[in-house]
Amino acid sequence: MLRIRSLEAGYGNLRVLRRVSIHVSPGEIVTIIGANGAGKTTLLQTIAGLLRAQAGEILFDKQDVGRHAPEAIAFLGCALVPEGRQLFGPMTVRENLQLGAYVQIRRGRAHEVDHDLGRVFELFPRLKERASQLAGTLSGGEQQMLAIGRALMARPKLIMMDEPSMGLAPLVVKDIFAIIRRLGSEGHTVLLVEQNAKAALRIANRGYVLENGRILLEQTAEDLLANRDVQRAYLGRDLDSETELDGMRR
Amino acid sequence: MARRRNLPIVVLALAVIAVHLASAAAGKPQYLTQLTMAGYYSLVIVGLTLLMGYTGQISLGHAGFFAIGGYTSGLLTTYNLQGGGAFLSLLRATGLLIAGKDLYGGDLLVMRPWAACLIALAVTVGIAYLVGKPVLKLRGHYLAMATLGFGTIVYKVVLGSSLVGAADGISDIPAFPLFAGLAVTGKSALRVQNYYLAWGLVLGAMALLTNLIHSRVGRALRAIHGAEDAANAMGVDTARYKLHMFVLSAALAALGGVFLTHYNGGIGPSEASIMKSVRYVAIVAVGGMANLWGALIMGVLLNFLSLRGSFGSYDDAVFGLILLAIMLFAPDGLLRVEMVRRLPGLGRLRGRAP
User: Fold this and answer.
1) What's the pLDDT band for B351 if we cut at 50, 70, 90?
2) Are B170 and B75 in contact (CB under 8 A)?
3) Choosing a second label site near A17 at 20 to 30 A (CA), which of A48, A168, B47, B204?
């Protein structure tokens, strides 16, 4: 589905990503975990075409899309749920979703849009209730649902999600991750970028650790969850002190 | 839906007729002259509303496009093409030229107004395309500054070149005959006809633009306005849309420029000045940004007052003050769609639009 080789990208003279190579197979949920500033958002923006790759290769569905414009990449079936949602605030929920189907109309599949709208509403009943409300007036969790729904409207082959848990209450985060897990079980391919590494690894099949623009580690999600270094650096879990804490609680 | 959309167009058409009747009844037919001129300025304003309010791209150079249209048409219909040369004989053979007499009875051979008008529009579209393509990659303040630079260049060029009369501008621009009995001219015998012509063009532009903003294109434009990168990642060709809207709004400005120039029989560099561009931006802002009807109403009102001389020598200062006050106290404009929606009976419109 997606194969990236030795990708280098950044802003102007600043190189953020260095020789990044990852791949995502159909039906997989792959997560990229890493600290703030590791280059996670840069990676997704480069794949989406919003940033130009400085070197390396991005193969999407066996096509080299490294020099494609964002709209062309979207047309091929790569959808982005951007960091901070980036909804069309002054438009209604329904209009936001219809805009998500923009490439479907360009593909000559306008007749599928109504059906897809129903599917998104079934997945997110809250959005249906608020269909004619302006997107800017939704709560954070609802906005994130709308951002995901908007991406689904394009019938993407790959959904890339940038920090879907950002700024959300823990209970809402749980809902969002449950949705992503459900999308995976329905056969969607997801590339998930998250600071909330623990939650991301729990629903992912495979994960990469990105640090200072380099891929440090690639393992199955279970292995990464069990990896002591990963636990210490990203899961906020220090086993030694945790046992101490446990002892104190008792 | 379509009927509700066309209703304001019908209301506008009726208002145009009502204003004519009222001015005739009040014995003030001269008001129609300023209203005709205000109508042509309204073409600039509704085009700029599409660009600024709906697409979210500012332009401080639209007076430049207005002037390019007016000056091109004015120059071509006054520049004497008497003489030899293969190119001129070829031009003569096409029938695009027309003979006439100048003020002193000398022979004059100039371009026919309709050909000059088409060339003026084509030139403007070409320039808008060439300017817009690189400039629209910029955002926010940078775009404002770049378009300001463009406007300054146009102003300085028309002010400095003797070909277009430098500080005096072009005068004695002939009438623009459209069809039997109707010509774009300031002659008082054709005042009423010209009033209807100008407002017919405004009606046409409004019909075009209201349909555009309610189509899939309009949704894409509002998405670009809301979150440009997200729209782009959604498959919207943001660069193309922005360029097309820039060119369309420039063409509307040029159309207003061409017609007003023939109506007035002249054009001067003040039409290209930065203060004119600021005035257009101020009117779009006071009209509610993403509100074509608001911009049209405020445009007619303010331009009419300005043309009647109500602001005296503080004309430009008034528009500067309006812009300042709007940005400080009502950044969403004075005429907002929400206010219309709050009117009784229109409650069901809630949730729709800009």
Assistant:
1) very low
2) yes
3) A168
Tell which of A41, A85, A86 to mutate to test the B interface (max B CBs under 10 Å).
Answer: A86
Under an 8 A CB cutoff, do A86 and B227 touch?
yes
Q: How far is B342 from chain A (nearest CA, A)?
A: 16
Residue B348's pLDDT is what?
43
pLDDT digits (tens, 9 = 90+) for B271-301: 999 999 999 999 999 888 888 999 999 999 9
* H-only helix segments in chain B: 2-25, 31-49, 62-76, 86-94, 113-135, 140-160, 191-213, 216-226, 228-233, 238-264, 274-286, 292-307, 315-329, 337-342
Average pLDDT estimate for A208-232? 91
For residue A243, what pLDDT band results from cuts at 50, 70 and 90?
Answer: low
Are A103 and B350 inside 8 Å of each other by CB?
no
Q: State the average pLDDT for chain A.
A: 90
Calculate what percentage of chain B has a pLDDT beyond 70: 92
Distance of CA A232 to CAs A35, A97, A143, A197, Å? 12, 40, 32, 11
Q: pLDDT at residue A98 above 70?
A: yes
Nearest residue of B to residue A70 by CA position?
B233
- What is A2-84+156-249's CATH number, 3.40.50.300, 1.10.10.60, 3.40.47.10, 3.90.1680.10? 3.40.50.300
Contact A88 B231 (CB under 8 A): yes
Q: Which residues of B touch A105 (CB under 8 A)?
A: 216
User: What is the 8-class DSSP label of residue A92?
Assistant: B
Residue B82 sits in the same domain as residue B61? no
pTM summary value: 0.85
A150 touching B (Cβ < 8 Å):
yes
The minimum CA-CA distance between A194 and chain B, rounded to whole Å, is: 19
